[in-house]
Amino acid sequence: MIQFERVSKMFPGGTLAVDNLTLDVHAGETLVLLGTSGSGKTTSMKMVNRLTEPTAGHVRVDGRDVMRQDPIALRRTIGYAIQHIGLFTHMTVAENIAVVPRLLRWPQPRIDERIDELLIMVGLDPRQFQPRYPAQLSGGQRQRVGVARALAADPPIVLMDEPFGALDPITREQLQDEFLALEGEIRKTIVFVTHDVFEAVKMGDRIALLDAGRLQQLDAPRDLVERPANEFVEAFLGHHRVQLELMTRKVGALVKAGDIGSETTTAAASLHDNDSLLTALGKMKSTRADRLSVFRREQHVGTLSRRQLLAAIAESLGLSESSP
Question: What is the CATH number of domain 249-316?
Answer without folding.
Answer: 3.90.1280.20
